[in-house]
Amino acid sequence: MKTVNCRVSGKPLTEVVDFGKQPLGNGFLTPYQYKDEYFFNMAVAYCETSKMFQLVDQPEPEKMFHDQYAFFSSTSKYMEKHFKEFADLILGSKYISKENPFVVELGCNDGIMLKNFAQNKINHLGIEPSTNVAKVANQNGVKTISEFFDANVAEKIVKEHGQADAFLSANVMCHIPDIKSVVKGIATLLKPTGVVMFEDPYLGDVVEKTSYDQIYDEHVFLFSAHSVQYLFRLYDLELIDLLPQKTHGGSMRYVLAHKGAYPVSEAVHKILEKEKQQGLDKLETFTKFRQNVEKSKSDLVSLLKEIKSTGKRVIGYAATSKSTTILNYCGIGPDLIDFISDTTPIKQGKFSPGVHIPVKAYSEFKSAYPEYAFLLAWNHSEEIMANEQAFMQSGGKWITHVPTVRVVK
Question: Does the model's pTM come out above 0.70?
């Protein structure tokens, strides 16, 4: 999917960082699949008109979201709690009508958030393009269709169910290249008093922490308040609130509604001003970001080589999509990391995309602790470290690259 113009404004893009040849972030594979492994050139660019930070190229959606999709949200207890709180916020809000409310979630995964509405007997609909995950959601009692949402799908939903009180999404909107058709669909689907609430990894945190692993094939966009405001204004939808989140190493929850339906909160004005101070509305900020990315790469490779030269073992902790960017950009393979430990059965026994590090069951990590564990799921560090007291008491140390490359005892 080649583009040289911004997907939102249509204006020319300016390239910021070229990460070179990258495989699919979630493309864990077996050795017989190596010869057919898919790669694309991954570069990110910035549009000075829309303020949108985006991939230049992105693989076709069908390559990324399919019947073998390897991520299930419910594997994280922390995320289960987070999505219950998200649902409770909606259930207790003024946005839900008293009579026959209807809630739609885009990218509902295995039903981790919508099940809270189902349990409260709220009419709901999940939209999940990965058929294997959608099947699990339906088994969990969450009404789910397997579609790629756009303006046409929105019209079909309105005809069958009526308009929605709330359109929700978490870590999904940033995945969608044809984002304008999605927002057009949302405008059609929402009641006049309806709201959109979605959250995604936040560009401000990525720039501040040099967490460049938030950039991978699925994340075609990294949003800021400025870029979201520009996008939704095209369809007369207004940014009415902003709620920073800790999830995924720093996310933002955006609240939008039809123009004039609700007052704009003070948080919107404050965060827009903070983004200007941070320089998220200026191209030169991303030149500095590129320099920080290059330094992070150099420091990480040097650290791993130094550790391996002493005969110590390093094991990767969690086979995340984000780790694919780090490992391939930095050229880190089985020579530096023995294997990656992961609790997801569909990934175990496979190899990491591109660099082909073995992925093994968590029991392999626990049965013989290494001297070092590279925290590939750094955004879940609190939950992980709370669960891994035994590893640390054995003398195990963590390697992290966010916000700087370092060893944590």
Answer: yes
